[in-house]
Amino acid sequence: MTWLTKYNDDRQRLIDAHAYQPASEKDACGVGLVAAIDGKPRREVVELAIRSLKNVAHRGAVDPDGLSGDGAGIMVEAPQAFFAEQVRVIGQALRPGPIAIGQIFLPRTDLGAQDRARAIVETEVLRAGFFIYGWRQTPIDLRVVGSKADATRPEIEQIMLAAPADLAGSDDGEALERELYLVRRRIERAVIAESVPGFYICSLSARSLIYKGMVRAELLDQLYPDLLDPTFEAAYAIFHQRYSTNTFPEWRLAQPFRMLAHNGEINTLKGNLNWMRSHEIRMTAQAFGDHDEDVKPVVQPGGSDSASLDNVFEVLVRAGRPAPMAKALLIPEAWAKDEGLMKPEHRALYAYCNAVMEPWDGPAAICATDGRWIVCGKDRNGLRPLRAMETHDGLLLAGSEAGLAGLPDSRIKRRLPIGPGRMIVADLRNGILLDEAEAIDALAADHPYTEWLENMVDLEPLIGPGPEPRAATGEALTRRQIAAGFSREDLDMLLDPLIVDGKEAVGSMGDDTPPAVLSTLPRPLAHYFRQNFSQVTNPPIDPLREAGAMSLKTRFKNLGNILAEEEAQTNVFVLDSPILTTGMYERMLGVVGAGTTVTIDCSYPLPAEVDRPGAGLRAAIDRIQLEAETAVREGSGLVVLTDERASEDRITIPMIIATAAVHLRLTDRGLRSFVSIVVRSSEALEPHGVAVLVGVGATAVNPWLAQEMFQERLDRGAYPGLSLRDACLNYKAGLEAGLMKTLARKGISVISAYRGGCEFEVLGLSRALTAEFFPGAPSRISGIGLAGLEQQAMRRHAAAWIDAAPSPAIGGFFRIRAGQEAHAHDARTIHLLQDACNRGDYKRFKQYSEAIRDQPDLAPRDLLDWRERLTPVPVHEVESVSDIRKRFLTPGMSLGALSPEAHGVLNVAMNRIGARSVSGEGGEDPDRYATRPDGDNMNSAVKQIASGRFGVTAEYLNQCREIEIKIAQGAKPGEGGQLPGFKVTEFIARMRHSTVGTTLISPPPHHDIYSIEDLAQLIYDLKQINPDARVTVKLVSASGIGAIASGVAKAKADCILIAGHNGGTGASPQSSIKHAGLPWEIGLAETHQVLSLNNLRSHVVVRADGGMRTGRDIVIAAILGAEEFNIGTASLIAMGCLMVRQCHSNTCPVGVCSQDPRLREKFTGTADKVVNLFSFIAEEVREYLAMLGARSLDEIVGRTDLLRQVRRGGVHLDDLDLNPLLVRVEASEKKLWAEKGRAAVPETLDARVLNDAWAFLDRGQTSELTYPISNVMRTIGAAVSSAIVRRWGSTGPTGVLTLRLNGSAGQSFGAFGAKGLKLELTGEANDYVGKGLSGADIVVKPVEWREHQPAIGNTTLYGATSGRLFVAGSAGERFAVRNSGAHAVVEGLGAHGCEYMTGGCVVVLGPVGWNLAAGMSGGELFVLGTPDRVALALNGDLASIAAVTPEAADRLQALVEAHLKATGSPLASRLLSDWSDSVLRFVRVVPTPVARAEKAAEPIEAVPA
């Protein structure tokens, strides 16, 4: 069996078993372009593009065969002279007009299909009036094609065409390109109709030609010798290097596509595709004449997210919009909250864009062209790098990194910044280059958008706060509460915090209840939906500190023709969010739906006992779908779905299904864009329920019953001091904040692109129901269907309406209560485990284990058991307890979440038995790095690096055997860690380099991991700073995790940790604990299967985490693919934890999770108790292994044939199918756990420095070395810093090693630089300069100084704790993000500067971008500018402008002087030459408490103005 045959067979088995979705495959890349601004072809354009592509190769990945890449390509202007020669060579005479060239992939091994494909192409081009010069075999050199790429290689041919006579002489070529576009779409349709496999048109154009394939970027020009021909000239060339999470080489998915190359990921793809289906119905363009239908469907099936974006970009351009406007429509700048900083004309332009269509949201850097316009642009959050420059001789160069082309500085005229959401544009026809401001000015001037904006109606003033009616009180309200399924606990735990604080409830210790599908109690339908989240391939957004880039603005009224450009498109109503109070809803009817509102009753008669289960619900769904369709066809612009008419004899359709059913029916009928859907639901109580309704299609939601309930409680005096208005506003604000967090978790900024996208994972709904109502949402294990849902609703209905005096259930979803929801950790099991560990009694542990088995089914693994008729082996032949224990870890529980005593005990225990403990994200006390006098070791063997980077220093990273990158946490994926301020003591603050008493909430994303290639870079960084440690990447279980894990393995990770949704937490929002992530069994199985499929399983260790308590859990995890195992909550219980779930309140009664000294004294945990736990579990593992006939854990890893499903859930389920977990895929290469080592990474310049700097490293002698560098030299300084801290610790040597460098520094320049190192760069640097800076000095100065020119990239000084940085130029976005102690001077900043800074000092000698100092809780910032301008840029949530006191002025002057000395900056020189005047031009920003304290202090002497 060939590799390809085996791969395809295994892949199809996984797909058929619902174990794998091809749509989960992701990619990222490096991208760039070279263009001659005058539009004249040059050979140098092609050569520089090829050179640049080679210099971005490290942003891609390579297959183990060494040659098969993830994809590389180049789009060039069609070289007319080159192809004129090709036409002459084949004996044809040139005809008038340009030559059009088609680069076509044909099926290589099916010659009959090849012939059919050629016939289709020829038929359509001839029908359109083109003349065929002939076919040309595209020359290729197979020596550079790897075995995998060759197995899937297409036949590559070019067709050369002459234009029809009526198009040959068109001046601008637009008509010809439009005709070629229509011809291509007809060809594609015909190919699909005839089922021709393996056919793809890379390009068909007289302007552009694409060469691409599955080769390494360095080899593309060797694969295609055309590119090496000296006569092959072009005016522009766009290049792309792909990094795919999937290793299957599909040539068609390499980029560029027809118009663009895209580095990033479209987070809103599901919603965008759904809305495009609606837009297509009304989509018409005069430019297409009678051929509108030829371009539909616009988005072609089977493409990637980038290909889909390209499809829509292309149709907008071919319909007549210029490429810059297409970019503005699809990837607009954030504008909704940017009052003051943005020009009114720009705001009007973007408001128009928002009215026309939904943005394609997600991290993006795009390089695009329509043949005339060249566009280089970024996403609204600026999440992907894009550096640009113009040369004196008229070239524009842009790319993912600076220095790609290696041009001398003397040739560079200027470097051009590109801010978030912005673009630079070159008009090749007129030879004009527009910078980021000029480009938007030009677009905004095309139409009177400011006047058009007056047509938009802001609903807030019209329907905002006002009277709030009541619909039910007393007993009637109680009955409705019970029917909706809400307990008293729900109101106490979820509703009350929203009303009192306007915020979601916070909880701790994770979720130990069963998923809804396994519960014996009826659960709300929303509980079957798990929120999607971003990890690795794209980042979540920070909704706290970057909310300005997000918007909940909601449009009402018809959505028009997206291909038009007219004033009527702005005739819409706009509301600030989709949340409506009951009063707002009623007032809205008179404004939005005046005369056209149709209300649809979503209740139906109570089914009789003789009725077929689910038949009544099905009939009711059919009815509301028909009513909605009829209403819209008859002109209704507002449809209201309501369940308020439920009664004693009427039951409700679950409103999530009702909403989804109506949304999908209207979408399928082409009517959805004509109407808004308002949902009045009794089932929505908290943000998750509202998010699901919007996610399945609701335009707006009125949680009317929740409002009735809090109004009732308000009337009873439950909320003293709150008025009804306050309660309504708080509730609305809390829901909106939770909705923002849900969007942000998936990396989505704008509600319009989220709506209808069904960005959820279904856990426990039947596959049939999911496919019908929630298409695109995975339902991995199937579950309950309509019949079961109706039965559950009837149970609730009976409880609500039969009792004479109804009383809501007490509830036990959050806290354990008798007779309510089951919990894994109950009083009996806690007592048995603690007793066993206290006494060292294995028999007692076995009683505990039996008690666990006697519990109800709480997790998928509880439905599994061993295969029958296995042959056991004697226990004494099984590997030892000591060997098994080495595979165990205590997971990342931070110093801060845990008390120092509990944290230390875990470390001591795990070190005693040769296992490992993970530090968590709170740093580590350096006193622990040395062995204690009693011989115990309190140092964590695994150091965690999380998004907050608290306590992460060069020394910290060198005091471990392993480094864990926490991408996500099971209890709150898509969010950062959270430590309440009252737990931040002086000791904790010192460990975290933060401020005492300040709440610490880590950013949801790692700001240096916005894509898979960024993760590869961080892994590279960590392997430089610690040349011995393995690197682990922690992910959270979700469908699609297998593809992500493949990308992580290719990024050189050594271990992949799959965490289940039920992992513990010190503090998390309750909706995150309960409604995000999947059980680890699902994610672990997929990870093992897909890694095996892609021949990557032998490259990495797989670890599992989440609620493991017994040897049985360990063995099942091993069978599903795990080799190592985290045991967290059980280890806390062994130390004394009672699971009172008060970790977030600092009131742990046993001192495990408290920083209160009084409570810490109550801690009785010992290392012996923890050792007993792990010894007991290991011993039980041995017993199970013996029973299974295995002598080691290695023998059962991935052996799913040892398991069988023995229960399929309750009788009310359609099915509960765990077969997707049990599909077995055999890896072609296998390694034992002990054989898997540390994946090596390429050396950097430091390898040479370590050899050259022997005098410094041997005895600390001050030394100086000089080297030329280029962008491929990454992470310079890290390996040297490792040597420094290993020799001298954090104090550093007495001498200094200075590296004088010239050129363009690669990513992570100076990362983790230690004290004693100084880096002086003359040139420019890329992203992540000074990441984790730990005492080093870094200087970046240009060859030729130009005021405010870009000198370094994004995310500088991320997590820096000490050291200095001087930059004689400006920086990109997120400068000094999470700076905890470094001092820096820079001459300009992009957006989000000094975000979440907790220490240090930053001086900015130039302009600053918006959202300055967001979340800044420590440190000091000086900005050269006016107070008004700084105030506009400032995010004032935590930071304020303060007086420049004399002491502050002295600190400022000292830093500016140091900057002048280090860089020779002319700007610094000018300022210091008249310092008494210059100091008055600085604005000082500090945390608000500091500003208040200084203002209150007497006397305060400010520098006189």
Automatic annotation (TrEMBL):
Keywords linked to the UniProt accession: 3Fe-4S, Amino-acid biosynthesis, Flavoprotein, FMN, Glutamate biosynthesis, Glutamine amidotransferase, Iron, Iron-sulfur, Metal-binding, Oxidoreductase
Pfam family, one: Glu_synthase
Residue ranges, annotated region (Disordered): 917-938
Domain Glutamine amidotransferase type-2: from-to ranges: 29-429
Family matches, as SUPFAM superfamilies: Alpha subunit of glutamate synthase, C-terminal domain, FMN-linked oxidoreductases, N-terminal nucleophile aminohydrolases (Ntn hydrolases)
UniProt KW Iron-sulfur keyword: yes
Pathway named in the protein's UniProt entry: Amino-acid biosynthesis
CDD domains to which the protein is assigned, alphabetical: GltS (cd00713), GltS_FMN (cd02808)
GO terms of biological process kind: ammonia assimilation cycle; glutamate biosynthetic process
Top enzyme category: oxidoreductase
Cofactor: FMN; [3Fe-4S] cluster
InterPro entries registered for this protein in UniProt: Aldolase_TIM, ET-N_metabolism_enzyme, GATase_2_dom, Glu_synth_asu_C, Glu_synth_asu_C_sf, Glu_synth_centr_N, Glu_synthdom, Ntn_hydrolases_N
GO function term, MF aspect, one: 3 iron, 4 sulfur cluster binding
Stretches of the chain forming a coiled coil according to its record: none
EC number assigned by the record: 1.4.1.13, 1.4.1.14
Bias-annotated ranges (Basic and acidic residues): 925-935
KW Lipoprotein (keyword) present: no
UniProt similarity note: Belongs to the glutamate synthase family.
The protein's name: Glutamate synthase (NADPH/NADH) large chain
Upper taxonomic lineage: Bacteria, Pseudomonadati, Pseudomonadota, Alphaproteobacteria, Caulobacterales
